[in-house]
Amino acid sequence: MMRIGAFLKRIDPALNDAWYLKSGTALHIEGRKPHDPDVARLLLTEMDQDPQIVEEALTDLTTHDDVKRDHELVASLGGFGVPTLVFSNNERIFGPVLINPPTGEKAEKLWHLVTGWLEFPHLYEMQRPKMPLDLEIISDTFNPYVEARDWETRANPTP
Predict the structure, then answer these.
(1) How high is the pLDDT of residue 84?
(2) Torsions phi, psi of 42, nearest 5?
(3) What is the pLDDT of residue 155?
(4) What is the pLDDT of residues 68-90, one digit of tens each?
(5) Can you tell me the distance from the alpha carbon of 13 to that of 95, in angstroms, rounded to the nearest whole number?
(6) Bridge-partner residues for 94, per DSSP?
(7) How many Å from the N-terminal Cα to the C-terminal Cα in the chain?
(8) Is 112 helix (H, G, I), strand (E, B) or coil?
(9) Cβ atoms of residues 23 and 15 within 8 Å
(10) Do 149 and 27 meet the contact criterion of CB atoms below 8 Å apart?
(11) What is the pTM (predicted TM-score) of this model?
């Protein structure tokens, strides 16, 4: 999936954004497997893109280099598997992690709350306790992803 994104980014960064929206929706919401080349071809077709891009991205070994370089950059900034936002002066925030993300004015309000953390350089973490109903909602929300993935997750402690 990421190598396809790297290939598309070379054509137009907006295509990379569209790919991540399409493939992320397919994996996390629809329970489809965008990491399967056949599904990736179908998703590209749904985006009005040439499905041959899958083969082009995978045979171009430099797409691997692009993905690795992006990974190493985020890891060098302390990223460890959650969304990592990087701001000026390498200020970074992990997250937000949420279900049912807001849109419109609510999304803008959330963005201002998140970026407000930058004013407090020693504020490291804040978390809402998860009650049994919350865990059920989280489980239901992430079930399409869990069912569609073909890999095991290994939990590592937060550095």
Answers:
(1) 84
(2) -65, -45
(3) 63
(4) 998 898 888 887 767 788 888 88
(5) 22
(6) 84
(7) 27
(8) helix
(9) no
(10) yes
(11) 0.79
Q: What are the residues whose beta carbons fall under 8 Å from the beta carbon of 56, sequence distance 6 or more?
A: 7
Among 73, 88, 66, smallest CA distance to 2 is for 66
Place of tokens 């991205």: 57
Task: Identify the segments of the chain with pLDDT beneath 70.
Answer: 81, 153-159
Concatenating the DSSP letter of every residue in 19-85 gives HHHHHHHHHHTS---TTSHHHHHHHHHHTTS-TTHHHHHHH-THHHHHHHHHHHHHHHTT--SS-EE
Half-sphere exposure of 98 toward its Cβ, with a 13 Å CA cutoff?
12
Tokens of 118: 């930058």
* Mode of pairing for the β-strands spanning 92-94 and 84-86: antiparallel
**Under 8 Å CB-to-CB from 138, ≥6 apart: which residues?**
99, 130
